Amino acid sequence: MDTTAYLHALTALFVIIDPIGAALIFNSLTGDCAKKHRTVMAVKAVLISGVTLILFGNYGEALFGHLGININSLRISGGLLLFYTAFNMVTKATGIMSASNSDDISVYPMSIPMISGPGTLTLSILLFSHTTELSGKLAVSSAIISILALTLVCMLVSKYLKKIIGKTGDEILKRFFGIILAALAIQFIYDGIKNIGF
């Protein structure tokens, strides 16, 4: 397995998925629910997100190729989309939604758009597009699985996490991750412009 690709993907995915932030939102949606319901929702959200990210990451580029979209154009547009996401992470207040105790929140809002939203899907395609070797693709897939496993653990212990971090800690982390994501987005845009070939 390509260790460099794994670490690069792990860092990028950690920043954009933000397992701690996702867990705090999960807690706000399921705080009054039974433990079994919370566990089922967490596992379903992570499984749906994992399948979506790996499939879209592997075959999204081919889909865009059939549509006549160059991968470097995707890097630029994806970078802009990630920068927009990062800008919102830094400048906007954290919004907490409310849901009924009996609602199935695994697909919406937990999987899409929280864990595997447009920004994460774009990042997944870009990460897989950077490597053509099997070891690289395994590294990116492993990074996705690792981050989603961490997200699952955070969601399962989100009640305790909320007490430790609190709203202020979440705000600080979100803005810090937003700055890192902005730098990553600019790098994607730079790579796209450099390689597009005028």
UniProtKB/TrEMBL annotation:
Subcellular location: Cell inner membrane; Cell membrane
Entry GO terms, CC: plasma membrane
Keyword Transmembrane appears in the UniProt entry: yes
Principal subcellular localisation of the protein: membrane
Residue spans crossing the bilayer: 6-27, 39-57, 63-87, 107-128, 140-160, 172-190
Membrane topology listed for this record: Multi-pass membrane protein
Keywords recorded for this protein, A-Z: Cell membrane, Membrane, Transmembrane, Transmembrane helix
Pfam families reported in the protein's UniProt record: MarC
UniProt-listed InterPro entries: Multi_antbiot-R_MarC
Family stated for the protein in its record: Belongs to the UPF0056 (MarC) family.
NCBIfam families (alphabetical): NAAT family transporter
Stated name of the protein: UPF0056 inner membrane protein
Organism: Psychromonas ingrahamii (strain DSM 17664 / CCUG 51855 / 37)
